Amino acid sequence: MTGAPLGSQTVSAQRRVEAVVRRLHAGAPLVHDGRSAAEESTVRYVLLPSASRPRLVLPAEAPRAAAAALGRLLQGGGRRRVFRGAAVAVARSGLLGRWPGATLTVPQTSRSVVARLADAVDETELVLTMRLGPPRANWKPVAQVTDRAGRVLAFVKIGHDELTSTLVRHESDALHLLAERPLADVRVPEVRGTVQQDDLVALVLSPLEAPEPPAGDAATRRVLLDVVSAIAAPDRRARQPWGASAFAGGLARRLAAAGARALPAAQLLRRLMDERGGEELTFAPWHGDLNPGNVRLAARGPSVVWDWERYSEGVPLGLDLLHHDLTSAMDVQPPVAAAASLASRSRAGLESLGLTSSDVLLVTALHLLELVTRYLEDRQDQAGSPLGRIEEWALPALETTVREAVEEHR
Predict the structure, then answer these.
(1) 3-state secondary structure of 400
(2) What CA–CA distance (Å, rounded) separates 266 from 254?
(3) What is the rounded CA–CA span in Å between residue 348 and residue 345?
(4) Model confidence over 206-262: pLDDT tens digits?
(5) In whole angstroms, what is the distance from residue 297 CA to residue 221 CA?
(6) Other C-beta atoms lying within 10 Å of the C-beta of residue 275
(7) From start to end of 227-385, where are the E strands?
(8) Which of 105, 141, 199, 242 has the fewest CB atoms below 10 angstroms from its CB?
(9) C-alpha distances in angstroms, 209 versus 213, 214, 297, 306?
(10) What Rg do the C-alpha atoms of the chain give, in angstroms?
């Protein structure tokens, strides 16, 4: 594909949705008597609440599936509850195609990505619904796959360019690895299949039922720490001087390749390595994006964790907890405030995982360095994500944390 990435803020939400939906239903390029696959039918979708601001993509001709999807996807009280009730009633009546928003009609062939998804879930008449997030560089729609009655069969993560397809492939690899090495008290999706067409990759995942959550803040924190510890697989941990680790070397190389905006972070990493690089830390696997939306903690039994596209091994123990605490705080306060208070907020939890008091500032600085590097690599600022403006929130917190970590050591 050419032009701006679909996750860019310069691409309208309507164009972004239409591009992905059309590619899902288009036929794969064929060399068959010199002709491409013929268009055999069309599929109609409704974009809600409107074409210019699509948040939901629903099937116009599968009333029960659309109604069931609306009931699951639209949450909240007040006006949201009123809107959900009206939308579900309209969908169930079969009149969704007349919604005063927009319909999208796309051609479909028997060799489309959707047709091959049907083979993966063993359902001849599958229906897709999608809930859409804001623009960002790693924007990937996730389609809910149901039968026409609305029964959930699978979820499909869709990579549509070099960055997002790479992330989707990496998640597939990570989930296959975790299937071979199951985590204690953590459930992960099962890979049902992968469909690829040009640079589009669709990863088909089994649905997981969300467990009953723990009651109270103390129980919730205790279960979260258990999940972080389980992902950090005790049998795959090792201690070494962090400055000589593959993690530190990788950060340095990634920052060097990230351009001029990465120079302040690269200098802070160098200072940290010069002052404290000889200290040993525990290295372990991590999820890589353990925000509250990617985990459902369980009061009893295993918790459920999704979105393993950033999974890797050999990172300092505690980064998953820091990431969860940072993203949780960002839900209620500005990023600059959340980042500035991260070490103090996470200290007790990090120490319960086995970090020493002197490790806390060091590991917090390394987490902020990893985030800065990731946002620079992904060019999140160009996609319009506020977090991509690292100079406004992440770098100030990183500078303070590195300074405090160095002063603490002297």
Answers:
(1) helix
(2) 9
(3) 8
(4) 999 889 999 999 999 999 999 999 999 999 999 999 999 999 999 999 999 999 999
(5) 9
(6) 17
(7) 238-241, 280-286, 295-296, 303-305, 312-316
(8) 105
(9) 12, 15, 12, 11
(10) 23
Q: Computed from CA positions of residues 188, 301, 324, 178, in that sequence, does the dihedral angle turn out positive or negative?
A: negative
Residue found under tokens 């869709």: 158
Delineate the domains of the chain, giving CATH numbers in brackets. 13-205 (no CATH), 217-409 (3.90.1200.10)
| Residue corresponding to tokens 């941990």 | 237
pLDDT in tens, 139-165: 788 899 999 888 899 999 999 888 889
Of the candidates 94, 93, 53, 58, the residue with the CA atom closest to the CA atom of residue 73: 58
Full strand arrangement of the beta sheet holding 127-131: 102-108, 41-48, 56-59, 127-131, 142-146, 152-159, 200-205, 191-197
pLDDT, one tens digit per residue, over 93-128 is 777 767 666 788 888 777 788 888 888 888 778 889
Structural contact between residues 70 and 77, judged by C-beta atoms closer than 8 angstroms = no
Region of 317 please: left (phi>0), alpha (psi -120 to 50) or beta: beta
Task: Give residue for tokens 């319909």.
Answer: 103
Task: Look at the pTM and tell me if it is higher than 0.90.
Answer: no
3-state class (DSSP) for residue 338: helix
